[in-house]
Amino acid sequence: MRPRDRLRIAMQKSGRLTEPAQDLLMRCGLAFRQSRDKLFCFGEGEPVDLLLVRDDDIPGLIAQGVCDLGIVGRNVLNEYQLTAGREDAVALAEWRALGFGRCRLSLAVPQEMDYAGPVCMAGKRIATSYPGLLGRWLRERGIDAGVVTLAGSVEIAPRLGTADAICDLVQSGGTLAANQLRETDVLLESEALLVGPQVLPADERGDLVGLLLKRIDGVIQVRE
Ligand code: PRT
Ligand code: ZN
């Protein structure tokens, strides 16, 4: 078999999605042997291999055809779709919602701020790692606000005086509370997705995707 006759799935190397994604693939009957550098896992039964990467790189790897499928949060997929350059704009599809990694992308303001709706953000600075999703939300509402893009530690920006509000992922709400912030608007509900190109490759990989989707549906049904 030529190497690209094997299906390649990108998943997060180390983070919140790693364990549940591995667990899902295991329940689908897949088994892997990890390479020494721990970046590649060779499929031992079915011709399905894994590439272990940062979650932010997953949509691009699929768009470039390096990987055929990926397991990634809707937040990362949609941000990529809004910010990727035209040359990367291969249409990616949500093949399945996987039911783990649930969170929401929300606007949050300092607890003491008077907040009477999104218009209150006009002329304010909002810190986020999701400038694409936040920018779209603001545009849809005709709000002219400053978007301060930060790679991490977004929740401390208001205390540092670098922003008036934040737009970040929320799960339990504990991080917001610990930083005296109040969640006001949900921009996006997210969960882990199986993502792939809208058009499947017309070779053995297409059949393998079909097989994998059937097994995933079986696992999801049992879980529900
Ligand atoms: O290194 P790499 O880039 O791969 O990892 P990462 O640090 O970017 O991602 P990681 O592992 O933190 O998250 C991976 C994915 O899990 C995200 O893209 C989301 O789709 C999903 N997810 C689910 C979350 C959360 N829940 C979550 N709570 N991602 C991040 N958080 C963070 C959030 O940013 C905030 O700092 O947790 C904090 C809020 O949590 P609560 O419970 O205090 O509200
Ligand atoms: Zn990341």
Regions with little confidence, pLDDT below 50 for 5+ residues? none
Q: What is the helical fraction, as a range of percent?
A: 25-40%
The total count of strands amounts to: 12
Per CATH, what is the topology of the largest domain?
D-Maltodextrin-Binding Protein, domain 2
How would you classify the helix and strand content by structural class? alpha/beta
Name every ligand kind in the structure: phosphoribosyl ATP, zinc ion
Q: How far from one another are the termini? A: 37 Å
The strands making up the biggest β-sheet line up spatially as 2-3-4-1-5-12-6
Describe the global form.
elongated
Assembly context of the chains: single chain
CATH homologous superfamily identity of the largest domain: Periplasmic binding protein-like II
Number of domains: 2
- The gyration radius over C-alpha positions equals 20 Å
Q: What is the name of the CATH class of the largest domain?
A: Alpha Beta
Subcellular location: Cytoplasm
GO molecular function: ATP phosphoribosyltransferase activity
Pathway: Amino-acid biosynthesis; L-histidine biosynthesis; L-histidine from 5-phospho-alpha-D-ribose 1-diphosphate: step 1/9
Catalytic activity: 1-(5-phospho-beta-D-ribosyl)-ATP + diphosphate = 5-phospho-alpha-D-ribose 1-diphosphate + ATP
Can you walk me through this structure?
With 224 residues, this protein is an alpha/beta fold. The chain folds into 2 domains: 3-101 and 191-223, Periplasmic binding protein-like II (D-Maltodextrin-Binding Protein, domain 2, 3-Layer(aba) Sandwich), CATH 3.40.190; 103-190, Periplasmic binding protein-like II (D-Maltodextrin-Binding Protein, domain 2), CATH 3.40.190.10. It is 29% helix and 30% strand. The protein has 7 helices and 12 strands. The chain has helices at residues 18-27, 58-63, 74-83, 131-140, 157-160, 174-178, 204-223, and strands at residues 7-12, 32-34, 40-43, 48-53, 69-73, 92-97, 103-110, 125-128, 146-149, 165-170, 181-190, 192-197. The protein has a 7-stranded mixed beta sheet, with helices on both faces. A 5-stranded mixed beta sheet has the order 9-8-10-7-11. Strand 8, helix 4 (131-140) and strand 9 (146-149) form a beta-alpha-beta unit. Helix 3 crosses helix 4. The longest helix has 20 residues, at 204-223. The radius of gyration is 20 Å and the shape is elongated. The two termini are 37 Å apart. The structure holds phosphoribosyl ATP and zinc ion. Phosphoribosyl ATP binds at residues 12, 15-17, 54-56, 73, 75-76, 101, 103, 168-175, 190. Pathway: Amino-acid biosynthesis; L-histidine biosynthesis; L-histidine from 5-phospho-alpha-D-ribose 1-diphosphate: step 1/9. One of its GO terms (molecular function) is ATP phosphoribosyltransferase activity. Its main location: cytoplasm. Keywords: Amino-acid biosynthesis, ATP-binding, Cytoplasm, Glycosyltransferase, Histidine biosynthesis, Magnesium, Metal-binding, Nucleotide-binding, Transferase. Belongs to the ATP phosphoribosyltransferase family. Long subfamily.
